[in-house]
Amino acid sequence: MLLEEVMQELEAMGSASTRKIYDNHGARGPGFGVKVGDMKKILKKTKKDHALALSLYETGNTDAMYLAGLMGDARKVTSQELDHWAKTATFYMVTEYAVAGLAAESPHGWDLALQWIDAPEDHVSSAGWATLGGLVSVRDDQDLDLDVLSQLMQRVVQTLAQAPNRTRYTMNGFIIGVGCYIAPLLEKANAAAEAIGKVNVDMGGTRCKVPMATDYIKKVVDMGRLGKKRKKVRC
């Protein structure tokens, strides 16, 4: 499909009600208000088309940018492209889900995540912690540095209260990810979850809630799914 064709389909799928929801969640800039499930109908046609994904992202349209993150090829995307995407995104759904998911599935995710979490911009640092949360869900434990992950959990405990809004959300998600997907670090993750307690995040007046890390991890353990990795991050 051509860029123009994809944009036309996105526009046809958009709705004012969905756009309002995204606006309430902090979306900035142009967008049609397309549900993620509808975007996947386009994705079935394009498959992984990295060149098209790059063009979609540069439109600045929030729906196109999210779709670009889903469409991007983790084997082809460069560190520079991911860094550009994270820094120019205009909606946390783009950075924390589409971009972070692509980064986590790429060979560049670990290094970029460690850079991003030090960024002063909320949308960049939140993408870093989201990428780390994605990485632990798909990479084998032997391919992860468990000592560094332990140190990062302590960093969350020590700094979450002073972190920017969306960064607090993805820090919490990182603790949950470690506790659910890395069995050897369960005890440390539970201790970190207890230490951060209830995390307060401004959700833009919506009904969305921040999950309690302690409860979430316990639920996964009780289900017998501790340490069971996912096949992919993006969904």
Describe this structure in words.
The chain is mainly α. The chain has 13 helices and no strands. The protein has helices at residues 3-13, 16-24, 36-46, 50-57, 62-71, 79-88, 92-105, 109-116, 122-138, 146-159, 165-181, 186-196, 213-222. Helix 3 (36-46) packs across helix 5 (62-71) and helix 11 runs parallel beside helix 13 (213-222). The mean pLDDT is 97.
Question: How many discrete domains?
Answer: 2
Query: What portion of the residues fall into strands of 2 or more residues?
Result: under 5%
Helix content: 55-70%
Shape summary: globular
**CA(first)-CA(last) distance:** 21 Å
Total DSSP helices: 13
Number of strands: 0
Structural class: mainly alpha
Low-confidence stretches: none
What is the succession of H and E elements? Answer: HHHHHHHHHHHHH
Largest sheet entry: none
What Rg, in angstroms, do the CA atoms define? 17 Å
Chain-averaged pLDDT? 97
Summarize it:
This protein is mostly helical.
